[in-house]
Amino acid sequence: MKITLPHMGNVYLAAKALFLDLGIEFIIPEFSNKQALELGSKYAPEDICLPYKIMLGSIILSYKAGADTAIITGSCGPCRYGEYCELFKNTFKKLGYNIKLIVIDYPKDIGFKELVNRISNISMASSKKKNEKITAVYNALKVIKLIDYIEMKARNLAGYEIVKGTFKKFLYECKRATFNCESATEMVRVLHEYKAKLDKIPIDKNKEPMTVAIIGEIYTILEPFANLYIEDKLMDLGVSVKKQITPSWWVKNAMLSPFKLNSLHIRLASRQYLSEYIGGHARECIGEAVMASEEGIDGVIQILPLGCMPEIVAKAILPKISRDRNFPIMSLVVDEMTGEAGYSTRIEAFIDLIERRREQNVLYRG
Ligand code: SF4
Question: Ligand 1: which of 80, 105, 285 to mutate, judged by most atoms within 8 Å of the beta carbon?
């Protein structure tokens, strides 16, 4: 078995840790790029959403590099994500590609037994002992938790940096160093070192940077290529970024969902505007917008792929939250035709707006 998985934010680091520990051959695809998108768009159904196209292209590139099994995550309720697996299978069949798909889904949707069954399809390819396999999973979880924490903190501290670009450089260096490790234990050690280093980077505590929360469709907010590197752009503008949805959040949410203990704060916050799960992460999007308006954040940017059903519903609700709470919210729709220049201009205009708003509020309070 030679395993691969499409990129989705920091997941590749946890995947590398897991496969190294399990002793399974793997291919981490190149970071999502234009080539993957073009390839995916060529074979994808015309009206499918952007994540499908990028993921398809990415899996095809890995297949051509020798992968024979791909792992993808599961359905997220009633939206197109539930069809991804079947669509991938049909496309691979048409193309004559012999590639197996393993779908990791929420236990509440497929049951713990089926989840274990699917995971054992992966672990069967490993000759390690049971306790070593458990350690492998444990280390992979540690890696994702650490890198998500480091990224969250670095992106937040970017607003306070003394030398422009310090935290962005630090973050990329940290990811590179972790990826270059040759064992999961080494990856965990390196991440701990970077976590400690992060605390020592000097910051200007007198700064009061703009703070923006990123919300929206999970793949698009996690995968930098899909959101045209919005978090890097905000860092360059000296903005502190907050994002609750991360791969480690996903893991925790999946574990707690069978007991209905997942994301209680988000569910509570969304209740007034969207009290049901409607697919994707629309409810989380609404809950996060409400919470951001109560947490002293200056504004919220929702990112959604063109035609994303759950996020279109969220997008329709967000203006009401914005009006009710006198709180700036902007939605950015992305697809393969999105032009970077116009996209950046909209982000800069939004930051200008929230800056002026803050200045006026200060003047008004006087
Ligand atoms: S949440 Fe939206 S973008 Fe993601 S799979 Fe569903 S419809 Fe597509």
Answer: 80
Q: In whole numbers, what is the pLDDT of the chain averaged over residues?
A: 93
Angle among Cα 130, 132, 135 to the nearest 5 degrees reads: 115
Cα(293)–Cα(314) distance, rounded to whole angstroms? 16
Neighbours of 108 (CB within 10 A): 15
pLDDT digits (tens, 9 = 90+) for 14-56: 999 999 999 999 999 999 999 999 999 999 998 899 999 999 9
Give the span between the Cα atoms of 67 and 28, in whole angstroms: 9
Q: How far apart are CA 283 and CA 350, in angstroms?
A: 24
Cα 333 to averaged position of ligand 1 atoms, centre (Å): 12
Q: What number does the ligand 1 atom closest to the CA of 49 have?
A: 8
Which two three-digit tokens encode residue 260?
């209905």
Q: pLDDT tens-digit profile of 186-244?
A: 999 999 999 999 999 999 999 999 999 999 999 999 999 999 999 999 999 999 999 99
Nearest-atom index, ligand 1, CA of 307: 7
* Residues framing ligand 1 (Cβ under 6 A): 49, 51, 79-81, 217, 219, 280, 305, 308-311
Strand spans (E) along the chain: 2-4, 25-27, 69-73, 100-104, 211-216, 240-242, 299-305, 329-334
- CA-based torsion, 64, 67, 68, 69: positive or negative: negative
CA 298, CA 278: separation in Å to the nearest integer? 27
On whether the CB atoms of residues 247 and 10 are closer than 8 A, the answer is yes
Q: Report d(CA 336, CA 112) in Å as an integer.
A: 37
pTM of the shown model: 0.94
Q: Is residue 365 predicted with pLDDT exceeding 70? A: no
Q: Which atom of ligand 1 is nearest to the CA of 217?
A: 1
Angle of helix 81-95 relative to helix 34-43, nearest 10 degrees, comes to 80
Distance from Cα 126 to the centre of ligand 1, integer Å: 33
Measured in Å, how far apart are the chain's first and last C-alpha atoms? Answer: 67
